[in-house]
Amino acid sequence: MTVSLSPWDAIIGYLKSAGVRHLFGLPSDDLQIISSLPSSGMDFILCKDQRNAVFMAAGYALTTNQMSVCVVGKGPALSNTLTGLLEAKNLGAPLLLLALGTGGDKLGTRSFQEADQISLVKPLVKWAYRVEHVDRLVWAMERAAFLAINGAPGPVYIELPENLMDQSVPIGFQPAPPERLSCSPSLRELDAAWGIIETARKPLILVGGGMKSGNSDVIERFANQHGAALFATASGRSAVDEEHELFCGVAGLYTDISLRRIWEESDVVITLGSRLEETATFEWDILLQDTPLIQVNVELEDFAHEYKGVKVLGDGYAAVEQWHDRLGQKPDGEWLEMIKSCKEKAFSQRAVYLEKLKKTPGIHVPELLEMIQTELPENLVLLQENGLQDMWSYFYPYFRFAAGSLSIVPSDQTSLGFGAAAALGASVATECPVVALVGDGAFNLFSPDFITAVQYRIPVIYLVLNNGGYGWLQNQMNYKHLSGQSFPFVSETAKTGMQIPQYEFVESLVIRSKEEARGQLQLAWEKYQENKLVVVEVYADLADVHEKISHVYGDFPLYEQQASKN
């Protein structure tokens, strides 16, 4: 027997069968979705800003490794999501955006809020589809969910015309939840790569964000078997245990100076699940001039063509499993000793630097990061931004992600406010402690949805590094000796104190010095355990930057060789 449902009943019914439990967004004016929610058991987190809503949904998806859902209206409501979609696409966040659209009966008539939404969205999603007939609605939902989680995960878009939402949807079959497929590399490609790996004496493995979907320790076992140095891209952090003896930090821009030698000496680099963005490949034209590169990706468009070597199409875990079962050379003792020596130097220099900071007034971000690792649980989910001071957490060994922890960072787009908003989605998704390390500029941009956390009682520990504004721009301006110009990106007025809204659910704390920092962090954890939203304002010095980014030129620091001449 064929049963007819309202479009929103059909949509919510499908999402429930697909395992979706939370929705984010701000619905359209007709509010038809509201009548379909009560019997579903789903929670709709009503956001105040559509951009933040997509950020939250992305944080949820990256925490659960499942498809998240965002619901918005049409026209400007949809255009407000574009920054979030740009971030979700580059992060590989499986996310379904549902938006209302102008009805087909009114297209081209200058209807209220009419816009070519498909054209706006299409470059930013894996698939964009406008449902023109009710018979295609459930099909569209199934296809969108399938595409969101398979291949390289990413956002998808379904547009719901207004006139469609007044019709009935015939349902004559049981909706099928999306199936997650595997993609094994071909034997020919594996053999070609193995021909390089089996003779390598100084292998290096780079783990990208595409490997965050797995939970196997095969990468660490493979590294042990072949004596391979382990690095991660910024988005790939926490995919492997950073306490592993062969883990050496973050690639490219964020590689500790003491660990650069490992890249210079390596005789093969194996990249797993990385698009090799500019931050990950910073200085590779110098460090890897003649080093063959083996790239493993599940999407053709994710391969970089600037490097010689072998491309392997398929799942990175499947490829490593295959190589792990083959017998290669024993680990090279000299290579392992060099890795150990470089790591010891990096940790020694970190210890010297922290000791130096103890003698200076105020609280410095490296000191704060050390206290986070000693005072907060290891299984935390750390959301990060990409500002001048919060970037310290990208530099290993100043912060290390142990097994069981999770790192969520902005993509190479580094959308301001992403980490602050995504922290709410992450907190909804997990029972692990959620900490957001953000700058005051990012936190202020997120502020419209601060009340959302209060209304839904979403606990997060926000560590807000207050340097009085946009520190990265001010630092660049100072470096170029333009500080006399009347463009103050930071100000002492802004740094006098943040105005945190006062609610019973909110605990506001301040860290001005290293002497009070540990006690305030301990108090923050106590209040968080009481299910509170905790905002810790940390007074940050504009000069507190890592040496790698102290010489700023445009979007990126100067190369080491150039910086040393300045």
UniProtKB/TrEMBL annotation:
Spans through the membrane: none
Domain spans labelled Thiamine pyrophosphate enzyme N-terminal TPP-binding: 9-119
One Gene Ontology CC term in the entry: acetolactate synthase complex
CDD domains in UniProt: TPP_enzymes, TPP_PYR_POX_like
Keyword Ribonucleoprotein: no
Thiamine pyrophosphate enzyme central domain boundaries: 191-321
Residue ranges of domain Thiamine pyrophosphate enzyme TPP-binding in the record: 399-536
Entry keyword Amino-acid biosynthesis: no
UniProt KW keywords: Thiamine pyrophosphate
GO molecular function, one term: thiamine pyrophosphate binding
Pfam families hit by this protein: TPP_enzyme_C (PF02775), TPP_enzyme_M (PF00205), TPP_enzyme_N (PF02776)
Superkingdom to which the source organism belongs: Bacteria
GO BP: isoleucine biosynthetic process; L-valine biosynthetic process
Family designation: Belongs to the TPP enzyme family.
Protein name as it appears in the record: Thiamine pyrophosphate-binding protein
Gene source species: Paenibacillus kribbensis
